[in-house]
Amino acid sequence: MESKGIPFIEIFDNIPGKGIDVNIWNSCYEGCECSTCFVEDSQISSKCVCVGIMSQNNNYDTQYRLNVNYFDKNWSLNLFPINECHSECACTNDRCSNRVVQNGPYFNFEVFNCEITAKGKGLRTRDFIPKGSFVIEYMGEVISLDVAKNLFEIRSGLSEPNYIMFLKEFYSNKMCMASTVIDARNYSNFGRYINHSCEPNLFVLPVRIENLVPHAALFSLRDIYAGEELCYDYNGTVGISQIEGSDLKKEKGSIECLCGSSKCTGFLPMTDLNI
Fold first, then answer.
1. Global model pTM greater than 0.90
2. Strands, DSSP E only, in the chain?
3. I want to staple 81 with a disulfide (CB 3.0 to 4.6 A). Which of 133, 171, 206, 259 is the partner?
4. How does the average pLDDT of the chain come out, rounded?
């Protein structure tokens, strides 16, 4: 919720913040030895180490959209974090279809003042965005959980937005295995202006590009038309509410939700800092 007009410095990639292990930040996972990584190559998923780290399927289809079977009602629960090819790979940018997030965004956006004044600013698309497309990344300083807890207390006392995203990763046992904390208050991109909705048109998916620290990539849940406001569920990655079996309830300190959706819960999701 961008309601205070707090200034920030625009960045084009995440930056390391307080509490981050420099060794992890500078780490690099193995690159593939493929001469090409095109989806049309039916053997890519079986031989490409980048694609095969988390899944046995190609990450993206021939249109560079998520390779997902949307006819499966549980498709969102079958998503895995994505590993893209990178500078250590034998394939090159022009011979690889597994470099979508790092080469984006591919659409034009506009920051605007929301009709509901209390919501402040929002972000909308100027272009049509097909379902399953990478839209934008939520960028900022990657910080530790302890630092995030301290910032929550400080910003709550100042009645200012926290701008902190907890990028959770879930695996086959449906347990949260990792959480990356991204603070977009002082350094960020247009993703900072995206508001919450209880009926969102975007969802968050962890995507790794070269090192072990994931990026918070926002993909489209459905076709989005030019002029629509972009929004995602602050509760986390798509499918998390089903995975956790969460029953959202109002707690002390809850902030009123202004999304206006017919599915609105009435308040913004509360962040669990015990992760």
1. no
2. 9-10, 15-16, 82-84, 109-113, 121-125, 134-138, 141-143, 164-170, 176-183, 187-188, 195-196, 202-209, 215-220, 231-232
3. 206
4. 83
